[in-house]
## 1
Amino acid sequence: MPRVLFQPYQIEAEISPDETVIDLAMKLGIHINASCGGIGVCNKCKVFLESGEAKGEKIEDIYYKACTLYPVTDIVVRIPVESHFDRKALLRKTRAQALERKETLSLDPPIKKVYLELTPPDIEENTPDLERLLSALSEKEFEITEVPYSLLRSLPHVLREADFKVTVTLFKHARGYRLIDLEAGYTLERNLAVAMDLGTTTLQLELLDLNSGETLAYTSDYNPQISYGEDVISRIEFARKKDGLKLLAERVKERSLLLMEELLKEAGRKISEINLFSIAGNTVMTHLFLELEPRFLREYPYVPVAKNYPLLRAKDLGLPLKEESVVLFSPSVASYVGGDITAGVLASLMAQEEQLTLFIDLGTNGEIVVGNRDFLMCAACSAGPAFEGGGIKCGMRATSGAIESVNIDPQTYEPMFLTIGRKKAKGICGSGIISLMASLLRVGLIDKAGKYRRDLKHPRLREGDEGYEYILVFKEDSATGADIVFTENDIENLIRAKGAMFAGYQILLESVGLSINELERVFLAGTFGSYIDLEDAITIGLLPDLPRDRFYFLGNTSLQGAKKVVLYTHKREELMRITQMMTHVELSNHPKYMDYYMAALFLPHTDESLFPSLSQRG
Amino acid sequence: MPRVLFQPYQIEAEISPDETVIDLAMKLGIHINASCGGIGVCNKCKVFLESGEAKGEKIEDIYYKACTLYPVTDIVVRIPVESHFDRKALLRKTRAQALERKETLSLDPPIKKVYLELTPPDIEENTPDLERLLSALSEKEFEITEVPYSLLRSLPHVLREADFKVTVTLFKHARGYRLIDLEAGYTLERNLAVAMDLGTTTLQLELLDLNSGETLAYTSDYNPQISYGEDVISRIEFARKKDGLKLLAERVKERSLLLMEELLKEAGRKISEINLFSIAGNTVMTHLFLELEPRFLREYPYVPVAKNYPLLRAKDLGLPLKEESVVLFSPSVASYVGGDITAGVLASLMAQEEQLTLFIDLGTNGEIVVGNRDFLMCAACSAGPAFEGGGIKCGMRATSGAIESVNIDPQTYEPMFLTIGRKKAKGICGSGIISLMASLLRVGLIDKAGKYRRDLKHPRLREGDEGYEYILVFKEDSATGADIVFTENDIENLIRAKGAMFAGYQILLESVGLSINELERVFLAGTFGSYIDLEDAITIGLLPDLPRDRFYFLGNTSLQGAKKVVLYTHKREELMRITQMMTHVELSNHPKYMDYYMAALFLPHTDESLFPSLSQRG
């Protein structure tokens, strides 16, 4: 990969083929003016190519637009004086390291297919069909404890169709095997499973080949329940309407199936090959999928219908898979700590390791788990949807046109920002919001209480309808035709949200006599965790101020956990053990919670000693 | 009870209040002419009342009709000389003793109802509903291994409806308990089960209270599948038609339900109180009820779909009981040794005792079991339906108007007979046929090969369309307006049937190195067994010639077995053990079967040493 040397700062780094010079600059914290989000129209991101070869659009004859510039060889670029640069900001861009938790396990799915060549009956030995089958299985050490009625009915025909050569599909549960399918002839090669992360916003599915353990296809789409309510609370409300619950369940099942068909099409496989469907979702989503009454999840004292969901068959749920195909749901711990978290902890391996780990899943709510192989404490922080852009004036989901990264020049207070898909800016998504707030704080445009400087006159600072605000994108440059602003109200919401998270870390740790400094690792789950900038998140006090090499982002651990259960039989037991181990702390009910929360309503915190690296940098 | 002394024979016996003098005479083997079947119209059964008081219809001023005569006090009756009497016949009427197999077991049904007052959740302890319930059950030592989805869906509502005071219904299986119902409040008193004998001809049902073990109601009716075929073979044939199997299954399920409703009405109970339905039937009937392919039961090499049927829920079978109510089927051993026999052996206790026992169930086919607590051998004898009146010219089922008992005067060859319900004779049922054949043999009207005397001129003996025959009822006296006859063809059919049975006893015994003389007990199952006259059955060689006190009739052991399973949990395991123990011998395939069978085609047998008591009497 070619290298880029930024002058006059003498900062050099490798650049990947799909990155432009402005992407790399943003990553390195080097400020280049860019007010169009990197789409190549504002003409402000000009750089001078001092040496090397590169492709890009020229401007004013001698400059290149950094947002169009792809190096061909190593290059040296000089950033004109118009783009100021704060040397210290270079320390302020750190991504958590990706951590793929790969274990060296041999593939051992709970679905076993066994090919049998049975001896056909004769008058000397006319054992009934079922017992003939069971005894052949018993010889191979498969003890069958459950035989479904539907299989009994097709049994004599299937056996005779293929002259007593058949393939059986078995599902291993705690006490033996359940017979789930019987096919004429040899069909060992057909053995699929689907793993799904059942999210409030999106469904993510993988199609897995249980013979190889490989992922054959991946897809995702919105959870169609969104049309009936964006967050879990509004969906619980919708479920109270007549047939509301049924409708919600049907919609999400339909969409899952459509996505499954998409996966099958991509892989060139058939729906009849799917033997297992493993689902991990939060407690509300799981209730809604299962058409279980969600009302009491929301009503005091917040009681789910179940923690461990029974093993279901496709036909129980009206899913048009083979009727005995097994549907597994990841167990919940509490109303707001669900199967996505238990599956996530499973995938993270934290419950098998010694290191004291803080697991954070930041979505609509923030769920956190502290522990290691000896104990697990968990809680849901009522962070609200601020980190997904909810409750923020110009907030939006992390889709095309969302501002995902911001840097503000400390002298000019001009922003540099990038949008997802490099489109005209529509609004600001979670990572952009954190980045923006951290920048505002660093350049001193807001104080530690989250208030804008009242003394400064600047075209981007003004008193709007909702109080003071910073104009990130002027309406001329936005996709919406309106200014994209960040208000003091927005900041207040964010401070509350991050305060709830931070107080949560403290309560959980304190409840086992530990403190933040003792954390050996911080795991960030979810796609959010992979976009967040560590320095920014620590700067505003959302993440604890620990050595940066203790932070890891793990990706979609809910989906990873759902997959593990499908690929390794013992992982289901491990998942049960995790669920059993997890002690849930009801934060709102904790006597010290309010104190910790109030103390955290400051940037980064009222107790500066908790953020030593920030005070050092001052 | 008053006593009756019959003169001139000096035979005296007690008479029960519902018996007439002719009933008693028939029981004692005392011949009184009676050609109307005991309905009081032939005026031939006249007796002279010598002393005592009795009520009845007079005839010729000084006589009474014996068929109308009910003693009030002890009486002496004299039988006029017209009614001859063979003294030896007195030895020839022996009923097997009834044997009620009552054990001293404490009631322990596999259904347990448990009333729970759960602590309602609060914010300190907001365990999910399901785990709250399961942990309360676990405290009472009920470990739940299965929770049905439907219950999960109603769980939160039921719990809250009754302020967390609920009654759960559990079904015990091998590995723990299955949760099958949840009701608000205290409902321990509602716990019913139904036991059913699923017969080819009749369904017999009992409604049981699982709290007391008492039978609340009993009913029976024809198996409506009769309309599609009288015997198992014709029903298997019908099942091959399009939707034939479905239709057969639906008909019998409908009828079962109607009968169940009748039981519930009689007992004043509700269908929702039924938690368990235990069914014992032969292999074909069980296949048809379960809509399992019956074809291969009949086709060589005669393979049932299953020996052990899985535990089913009412909803699996589309039965409109509570959907999780358990339906149990008694296991089969082979195509023609079914759940009626395994349940029968269970009820007979023979598999728990030391005495070598021969168990005989004589219905459409004859199923036999030989063994004791150490071993069990079984076989189906292809006796055909002769003992139910099938394949016999004037044969009929044992219903109103069927001749059930016959005695022939050794001098006049005139018959005395009684009909069921004391109606005009319509035909001859099984016990009548055996009785008639034994009488014909005793008085010498047929020889040991089953042929009528050709030398005798008698108005009741003639050569008809189908060869020689005995006219039991002249058309003037029959309900059908036709002569009721017994042909040589009929006799041949009967000889074949009894020969198949006898050869079966011999093969089974020989296969374990035993002989008929070593039998310590003979158990006669089914209603047939309670009507059969031992002397008659031994005379024709249907039953072995053993001391009469070794014979017992047990009644409907299939129904009794189905009941035991419902009342005592461990009986289901015992039933499994019995089924496992039972070694099935395919008679038609046994190398010696044909020899034994041929040797038995004689009255009583070609080997007279096998019937010593008959040769003694000469």
## 2
Amino acid sequence: AASTSEAVVATSVLPSWQDTAAKKSIVDFVARVTQAGSPDYVPPAERIAVFDNDGTLWLEQPAYVQLVFTLQRIHELAPQHPEWKTEEPFRSVLAGDMKGVAATGETGVAKLLAATHTGMSTSDFRATVHDWMSKAQDPRFKRSYTQLVYQPMLEVLQYMRANGFKTYIVSGGGVEFIRDYSERVYGVPPEHVIGSTAKYKYSFVGGVPTLTRLAQIDNVDDGPGKPASIEHVIGRRPIAAFGNSDGDIQMLEWTTAGPGARLGVIVHHTDAEREYAYDRTSKMGKLDKGLDEAPAKGWVVVDMKQDWKTVFPNATQ
Amino acid sequence: AASTSEAVVATSVLPSWQDTAAKKSIVDFVARVTQAGSPDYVPPAERIAVFDNDGTLWLEQPAYVQLVFTLQRIHELAPQHPEWKTEEPFRSVLAGDMKGVAATGETGVAKLLAATHTGMSTSDFRATVHDWMSKAQDPRFKRSYTQLVYQPMLEVLQYMRANGFKTYIVSGGGVEFIRDYSERVYGVPPEHVIGSTAKYKYSFVGGVPTLTRLAQIDNVDDGPGKPASIEHVIGRRPIAAFGNSDGDIQMLEWTTAGPGARLGVIVHHTDAEREYAYDRTSKMGKLDKGLDEAPAKGWVVVDMKQDWKTVFPNATQ
Ligand SMILES: [Ca+2]
Ligand SMILES: [Ca+2]
């Protein structure tokens, strides 16, 4: 009877995962913390699972989606900014000269973000993101970005919620950018999305209470900023964390250092054919120290090529 | 039949509220937004209600509870700080000279907060707050502070949750201070508490991942900071807001300026006998502009003396 029910679990749970060690680690962890009477039992209120976004829940190559948005917005806004023809980093963006953009460094990036992400109301920015997201397509896969989420990870999100977990996204990306689609695509409501934020100014604009996005960073939710944001917003230590890059190491450390059963998972991009293969030297989603530390820390490293039957939803394989 | 069911509602819902206009406003609002087919229907996911804490959910006189904690902690820590005998504002605190403390202004307050709220790990601070909260007593009511919450507001929290609302606390007070008791007293889990925050530093202390509370303010969640925090953390505009002071005006404006049915409520402390009576000139919870603006904005002003049958839980009246 035990083997029959295990076989049923194996096929009905996480169907896009191969029956390899990675899937077993996730399913075993959930069983341990949800089974009443288990020494590792965790009450539902404390079942918090956190997920990085770029490269963990959706693709991040050849460039973070929010960076694609930013560059395309510069092109869209250029007619209103004739000065950009000569002003860096705008000149390089408009000329398609990515090396020129890179040469402007962090100051350049800050200018691009300020020009595209600030100075408008929160609702106007939301509308701009929504409009872009509904039209933009990835050139390689010829799909909208919200269709380039990882089917196996959608199943993990749903599986954990079905087992009483609250699933939070904890991303270095802008929080509003993710909130645009997180509820309909991931089943994660806006209040469960934590990300980098701009400062807001509250004032009346045309008699209407308005939050205006300022060109000042409120919070950078990456690296050591992730455990800090988790503590600020959630106020509990998660018991499971999923990431894909060295920017997730502190979140994984913080999550798995707590008492009781803990789950740390790193998605390793090993599949150049179905998606991308990259790790130690990648500009986006660099995974170097995390790969070295995973064995000693007990973090599960998911080998995308070996462990996932499919990558994207409804993809012809 | 309608009158019978209305009578049942009147006695079974919000039992510590008198059957006055204030209660009717709350019950009518909830009915409008929850009734399927109503033009004001709001899906459960968007039913967000926000509550100020001090003076809205528990008492704040003669001093904010967190201020009482701060001053008592200075006394407890004084033996380890002989320099405080001569250094302001510590000298005045130890001498019980509140005018002397007040004379040190914001700089003095910052020093008191730094000495009592920062420099330790988040878990050590949590333990200190928890220990204090379990022992501290209000001198007038001879009760712990967690027994000095408002019974009618506990009923509102529960009533709104029973009607599919998510109830968030949005307080100018320190977020960890409220999280210590919010779940067991209010039924509000830590992740639904928004408050003022200190910056955290992530590092390994004795080989253990640790968040240390720094003497730098991360966020001041008061006045215009309230709508900004709501947008940062929740990412949706609430449809109901409860406050008690001018520090809640922006949160009330932001909430009630949205489309559809909206509820804004101000708790007016009018009951010197059972609690306190204060408004326009109070040092804690000053309510001046809010009283003036409430009628034009359609905000419900709760008259504690007239509208509440009881103030504290299980109180002998
Ligand atoms: Ca990532
Ligand atoms: Ca208050």
